[in-house]
């Protein structure tokens, strides 16, 4: 990162289908209040929102046809690359899920490095006996055997797996757009073989980072669950708490009995 220089930052957001429109204004507030203050920050929406739903300086809306899940997330890199020439004007690009809320200062020195920036998934941070959900199919272009590093803890070395969240990602513009091209191609290859990776685009992001380790790895402060269950996250998974900077919002319209059962199962482990 160029020290002392005002950076030009692009924040990229997909808000497709009416249930997601309501999150847009809160996200804009969070970006304008806390995100890289002192730098020039624009927000780009790819959305089917009615014209005029979100407006203001530095806000750009790219009209996009609605699509059923998982296409809005699976094909996100296609959408971004449709505007590649415009996005090249920025020093750094960051994608953030529309249903996330920025609640604390995020500084350039924390997230703008010499390459890519990735955030550890809160469900798989630190816990040694919880195997991350990597793509298991060797025939998928998202397949990886394991990703992580050797760390020293209390004088002992152990392998710490990395599992990266898809909800907040980015980095230096050229590096991230290059990653978008690779992931777009791989997603299409899988799709043409009638296969979708285990966790859609997140699986492909993890595969790319397995081959191209990020310059900056962020802790779960940047993917902090709003429905925090201390007995699970703080005591069982993290071994500590984190101070939230970006909160993932639990969506009532996506909560199911199956999801509740899965959380109960995790708590029992």
Structure explained in plain terms:
With 269 residues, this protein is of the alpha/beta class. The chain is 31% helix and 23% strand. The chain has 10 helices and 12 strands. The protein has helices spanning 18-21, 24-34, 71-74, 76-82, 84-87, 108-111, 173-192, 200-211, 233-238, 257-268; strands at 8-15, 40-47, 59-63, 92-96, 100-102, 116-120, 148-153, 156-161, 164-172, 216-218, 224-225, 246-248. It has a 7-stranded mixed beta sheet, sandwiched between helices. Strand 11 (224-225), helix 9 and strand 12 (246-248) form a beta-alpha-beta unit. Helix 4 (76-82) packs across helix 7 and helix 7 (173-192) packs across helix 8. The chain is globular.
Keywords:
269 residues, alpha/beta, seven-stranded mixed sheet, three-stranded mixed sheet, 10 helices, globular, disordered C terminus
Range of helix content: 25-40%
Order of helices and strands: EHHEEHHHEEHEEEEHHEEHEH
Low-pLDDT stretches = 253-269
Rg from alpha-carbon coordinates: 18 Å
Q: How much of the sequence is in beta strands?
A: 15-25%
Taking the alpha carbons of the first and last residues, their distance comes to 42 Å
Number of helices: 10
Shape: globular
Structural class: alpha/beta
Q: Can you list the strand order of the major beta sheet?
A: 3-2-1-4-9-6-10
What characterizes the major β-sheet?
7 strands, mixed
**Tally of DSSP β-strands:** 12
Overall mean pLDDT stands at 84
């Amino acid at each position: 990162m160029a020290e002392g220089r005002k950076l030009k930052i692009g924040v990229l957001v997909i808000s497709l289908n009416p249930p997601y429109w309501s999150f847009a204004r809160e996200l804009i507030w969070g970006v304008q209040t806390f995100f890289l203050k002192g730098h020039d920050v624009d927000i780009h929406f790819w959305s089917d929102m009615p014209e005029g739903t979100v407006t203001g300086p530095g806000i750009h809306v790219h009209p996009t046809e609605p699509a059923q899940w998982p296409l809005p997330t699976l094909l996100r890199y296609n959408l971004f690359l449709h505007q590649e020439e415009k996005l090249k004007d920025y020093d750094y690009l960051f994608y953030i899920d529309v249903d996330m809320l920025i609640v604390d200062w995020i500084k350039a020195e924390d997230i703008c490095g010499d390459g890519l920036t990735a955030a550890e998934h809160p469900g798989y941070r630190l816990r040694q006996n919880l195997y991350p959900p990597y793509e298991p199919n060797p025939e998928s272009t998202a397949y990886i055997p394991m990703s992580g590093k050797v760390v020293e803890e209390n004088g002992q070395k152990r392998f710490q797996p990395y599992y990266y969240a898809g909800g907040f990602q980015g980095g230096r513009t050229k590096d991230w757009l290059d990653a978008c091209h690779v992931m777009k191609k791989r997603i299409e290859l899988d799709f043409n073989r009638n296969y979708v990776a285990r966790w859609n685009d997140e699986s492909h992001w993890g595969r790319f980072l397995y081959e191209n380790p990020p310059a900056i790895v962020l802790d779960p402060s940047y993917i902090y669950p709003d429905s925090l269950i201390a007995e699970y996250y703080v005591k069982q998974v993290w071994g500590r708490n984190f101070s939230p900077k970006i909160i993932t919002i639990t969506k009532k319209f996506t909560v199911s009995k199956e999801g509740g059962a899965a959380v109960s199962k995790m708590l029992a482990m």
